[in-house]
Write a structure and sequence with these properties.
The chain has 220 residues and is an alpha/beta fold. The chain contains eleven helices and five strands; from the N terminus they run E-H-E-H-E-H-E-H-E-H-H-H-H-H-H-H. It has a five-stranded parallel sheet with strand order 2-1-3-4-5, sandwiched between helices.
């Protein structure tokens, strides 16, 4: 069987970082680096030209930074998933990028095998966030009044079926698709289908945004 290949675009202003990532990804036949850029301003054009599944996006670049570039990329039709590349996991720009649609982040000193694992997870719709980072993202995202956020979030969750709501709550706890499948007695494929519908109904682009809705609903 021919393996499914995940197409990747790398955007980073450090040529050594780009070379290192290409070397790591090139060792695995299930990944293909289809293009690279050195500034966030190149991201949209590269995505439109090469149709990647995943964009690895440096957060701090001299001209157009990764936050702006991520916003531009996730706004595209059939947008790829964006993974933020960063040196510090508490970087405010990283947290803001996650709230506007990035699917996760990778520290630049992450071990090669973990890089491959996390990219594979994101391509498959899984988050690459630790619970502490999810908590930071929620704190950044919750700027409106508590009552307003709660009412809006509860109304959004009310649009879900009972099964979808249970899965959304599990996402809010940081559970993976495999963990949800085990606790809900469902196949992983069924969980994935439910997650897709949840994202669509909530107008969310990733699981972090679902977790924020669940947090704001404050269902006890």
């Amino acid at each position: 069987m021919v393996p499914v290949v995940t197409r990747i675009v790398i955007i980073d202003d450090d040529a050594l970082v780009r070379s290192g990532l290409k070397l790591i990804l090139g060792a695995d036949p299930t990944f293909e680096v289809v293009a690279e850029g050195s500034d966030g301003g190149e991201a949209v054009a590269l995505v439109r030209e090469h149709h990647p599944d995943v964009v690895l996006m440096d957060i701090r670049m001299a001209n157009v930074n990764g936050l702006v570039a991520t916003q531009n990329v996730v706004a595209l039709p059939d947008a790829p998933r964006v993974i933020i590349l960063t040196t510090f996991d508490a970087d405010d720009l990283v947290l803001r990028a996650l709230t506007v649609g990035a699917s996760g982040f990778l520290l630049k000193d992450t071990a090669p095998e973990r890089i491959l694992e996390d990219i594979r997870k994101v391509a498959d719709g899984e988050p690459t966030l630790s619970p502490s980072v999810v908590a930071q993202v929620i704190a950044v995202a919750t700027n409106r009044s508590e009552l307003s956020r709660r009412d809006d979030a509860r109304a959004a969750l009310a649009s879900l079926s009972e099964r979808e709501r249970d899965i959304a709550l599990a996402i809010g706890l940081g559970q993976t698709n495999a963990e949800i499948a085990g606790s809900q007695y469902l196949s992983i494929a069924t969980v994935k289908a439910h997650v897709t519908r949840i994202l669509d109904k909530l107008g969310a682009t990733n699981r972090v945004q679902v977790a924020i809705v669940v947090h704001d609903a404050d269902l006890g």
